[in-house]
Amino acid sequence: MTESIFQNYRPPILWIFLFWTIACGIAFVSLGNLPLRDFDEATVARVALELSQKSGLDRLLPSIWDKPYLNKPPGLHWIISFAIGISQKFQNNIDLLPSEFCIRFFPAFLSTFVVPLGGLIQWNLRPKDRIACITTSAILLTLLPIIRYGRMAMLDGTQLSAIALLWFCFSSIKNNRSNKFYFLGAGFACSFMLLLKAPIIFPALFASLFPLIWEYKSKKYLNNLSWVWFLYGLIPGLAWHLWNFFSYGSGAFWLWFGDGAGRVLFDKGQGSELGILIPIIEIFEGGWPWILVWPIGFLWSFLSLNTRWGVWTFSTQIIIACSILPLKTQLPWYIHPIWLPFALLSGPPVSWLIQRKDYDYGFSKKILSKIPYILSLIGLCVISFSLLSRFNFLNGGYDYLSIILSIGISWFIGGWLLSNSRTYIRKLGFLGIILGSIVGFFFLVNSKLWLWELNENWHVKPVAEFISKFPDDEIYISNSFERPSLNWYSQKRIQTFEDKMQSKCIAIKETNDWDLYTCND
Q: What is the CA angle 352-354-355, rounded to 5?
């Protein structure tokens, strides 16, 4: 009896570790089976490659095609350059490009840490609800955007893990013991964010400081000496930005305003034609099946503002949403930070579906009890669509058959079991949903479908192979935009062709999508 009582006050570490291990498996399976995509992956790879070729203090300042790279800080680029250095030691030819697996390995690995950290944050907020801790980690494990963008050589997956570390450290702070290591960890998390997408530090930090200050409501708490440790943790990130400023002067501000917060706040960039609809569509596309319970979780957090969980989840969701939705530049991955508060809000309603413990919110509880039936019905529709596609009664969806069929079956059976009156049957239903989603994701990442943006333009690898026949010539491209991925695989910059150069250039290849020219002075 005593052991079971104490067990309730320990986080479910084994479950969290299991989910993190599965997240790593999904992250690494067939990680290098597709070429790097435009624009982010190929740009990140090129900057990392040039960093790996530098030494001494030169490694502190990134470059691209031998010019200063002022778009983003080099935090993740440094880590990828370390992977490139290791891979080159095992290559006979140092001039060979690093593999796609090498470029994506550390971004994919670092992005997985949001899965255990999200569960531990939930445990800090609801220390007696082990099931909510487990469901939160499981939700983060089975969200399609977290899987997809985490596998790419982009900053967003790693950035989400850094935000999760910051929130974990601040949510771990107690007013009855020394917290200097949590403050130091929070400072290091902020430093890491300063070295990824620096402006994100403001909403991420404010979203965690607001509930922290609200929770204790004491002026003397703000004067706690532990805050000095937070400043210690900030030193690496601030030091790099100071060095960048002293090196480039006003050019360093381009990272913050010209191509940072200023651009996304005031410039409606390419691909943002739908405006605020883009993040809304992304949420409705990527939040399944947990989007069914998210509104209930949001309502519960609003009605629970007198609790630690309510203040943290409501404020983090609102602050992060308000920092993303008004942006003029809207791209699907800009919504990525919202998935952490999304999971923190959705965890307790899913926990209730399993435990069916009484809450004070009678009306919402009645709605929530209908969710398993809705999920089961949706699963049945997905199964029907899969079978109709399989037997050619419907066009489309055949390539996704194994993915959607496994997910549809798990939703149908899992929803049906979640409606059962016995707790252990409902637990099996929840595990069935998770298992089906995991199997579906393994099918997805093991196919060539997980990086679907590659279908939007022509493939660059065959073009790069053709360009390799002209190693000493400057090559220009016409009838297309400059593609960082083509630059990467060609190992030289292929700039767009200008009309004024036509008299000095010779066409070496012409197609419906692009033309290539060699140009001499």
A: 65
